[in-house]
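Internal ticket #5521
Category: modeling
Description: The requester needs a full-assembly model to guide mutagenesis choices. All entity lines are attached below as received. Residue total reported by intake: 815.
Assigned to: D.W.
Attached entities:
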Amino acid sequence: MAAATAPARSAPSERLSRPQPASAHRPVVAVIGNPNTGKTTLFNALTGLTQHTGNYPGVTVESAVGEFTVDGVRFLAVDLPGTYSLSPRAPDEMIAVNVLLGIGEGVRTPDVVLCVIDATNLDRNLYLLTQVLGVGLPVVVALTMTDLAAKQSINISLSELEKHLGVPVVPVQANRRIGIPALRQALARAAQNAHRSISPIRFPAVFNHEVDALAQSLPQMNGPSPLSRFLLERLLFDAGGSIETTLVQQLGAELRPQTDAARTRLAAAGVAVPQLEVDSRYHWITQVVEATVQQAPTTNQTWTDRIDAVVTHKIWGLAVFLITMAVTFQAIFSWAAPLMDSIDALCKAIGAWVGDLMAEGPLRSLIVDGLIGGVGAVVVFVPQIAVLFGLIALLEDSGYMARAAFLLDRVMASFGLSGRSFIPLLSSFACAVPGIMSTRSIDNRRDRIATILIAPLMSCSARLPVYVLLISAFIPARTIGGIIGLQGFTLFAMYLIGLVIAPPIAFALKRTILRGEPVPFLLELPPFKVPAWRVVLFRMYDRSWAFLRRAGTIILATTVLVWALSFYPNQLQVSKEFQARRATASAEELEQLNTAEAGVRLRESYLGQAGRMLEPVVRPLGWDWKIGMATLASFPAREVIIAALGTIYNLGNEQDEGSVDLRAAMQAERWPDGRPVYTPVVALSIMVFFALCCQCGATLATIKRETGSWGYAVFTFTYMTCLAYLGALAVYQIGSRLG
Amino acid sequence: MEKTLADLAPNEAGRIHAIKGVDGLSQRLAEMGFTLGQMVRVVRFAPLGDPMQVRIRGFSLALRRNEAQRIVLDPS
């Protein structure tokens, strides 16, 4: 029955078919291990400068890929996400299983699996290793943290361990590059011998019978290959897990009652799953550890304990945390600033130089304003990204990040996220682009997406000029109750708005479109260590380059698009008119004429026409069409509004938020009936709109990149625009009634 | 009344008797080494009362109180 209906149900790319062996070309080494084992440092040491982030077939997230050479043979290494076991409960966790079993389009089984084991945590690390051995591929074990183990008086007999595991064990100290050549040799030998590993765990006969019975009734899975057996065992072990779900999709719903019945029988026989797997493995592990490890009892307080006592302390801990956050924040704001200003100035200089070389016209405008301006708009983010990721790498590698998550989890959990979301959200106060990129540290996909979707609500540094301009021009410089300055308070309130709206939205998202099985917090607190500078530098370089490559193209495209909409239709008539006026003008008047011309051009452009068409839509917010147009122009990048307003009010586009002329022009603006356009309430409504709206092509591009789909980017844009509109509406309507 | 890991105070230890429930959490706990008969010690609680830091099999783990409540200890 199952055989007849199976082909119709499954897509070829997802079929758990017999794997194709890797070709003789470029053997593949898959690297797997627990989190916090120094796997990243080891991968770095193994592959050196060939390391880059790429999309390995079968791996849906970007992972580290690199090469190394042994005796002239080039090997490809792929770093699998850190994991504690091979029992996937979510599609994301299927990555390791898919790669090891060669499932999916274009995936070949690896030639060798490199399992990274932490010498200071042998029991728990061996759990994963016994599972990996059960897959039946050639395995090499790298034993890391041996120096740390020695300090803790842990003595491991390598020969004994090798005997029990049946695979080579190579001790390494990745940060000091000790043992790496030996490791490469071991990997090359393993690939050549192609000696299949065997699981050392013997499960009870009754369990093996059930597996055999299952194998009989699933014709596709039939075969003597241990690979298939691995999947069958996992099928029985992981009730409701991803493997069962995938196989049910492929083979039909009749599978589930079979596995359920098998599990019931096992439970009745006294060997219930999943306890059976855990008990069997740890039973074996305990025996092996006893035979291979000698640990002298130590009651010394380690450095980690001492630092932890401070860092997680009620008072000192929070103090250290606040200082760390302040430094991070400050770094993004001000350390990156000089570099950003230089890039900005450089781009303007290049633009001016090129502009002088060319004749007036659309091509010049395209190149100067569109392309060079666009490239500048992209590159200017790089210093912030590099600085933020450098700091994050430092915090992560040292082990402090886990403590920060530990401190904050209570607060974050109250609205459905976890402590891990804090750093990305904090970073978003400086700039959402690196903030969103840093959500990679959140291993749970749903939590990660929820964090990404609320990150743009954190008022970023680009909103600040808008706030400053409007507050200084239209919020009276009074004090509330004689103590709190109204202007400062308004600024604070704008920052607060995003912060206050984000938790309910995260909560709602986790309850609706992102709902799923609650994710355990279970966060390991690794020992503190000195961060490896190679890892830090690589992270800075890698993230910056990734941003330029992907988000860059989209930002450039939108900048050019906005340029086009604000330049065309570029009626000749306007140019002629101004040419005539320029001919009879004096030197000072020329400057004025140029800016006036720019103003007229903008008003007559497609963007300007759109603005005027949209006036009915923005009237309820208290805005006129010029404000609407400027807002529209700033959708790709919110800072643009200032230049746009400057141009519309015939002041040219060199205005900034401190400019007196712009403030004066805005204060002088009148409706046809004489009422001022800008009142404090209107200013507030504009600010609220900007606080809640995602006017940043770079952010949307980054969201698309990090979530893998345009859907989430569109969703973010939509929900935030609606929020912004409703917020501005409420503020204006209620505010104008209150006077 | 059964005693769970969430009931311990800092520096108190207990031996694992059972893990309640059969879901992702219980499986993950077991995989990470929370097995029957294993000793586990509470190190501290976070400043806001939750989560808690425990020590088991030579490593430190942070988990929430409601997760710790799943771990039933020997009554001794």
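Resolution: model delivered.
Comment from assignee: Chain B touches chain A through 31 residues (CB under 8 Å).
Ticket closed.
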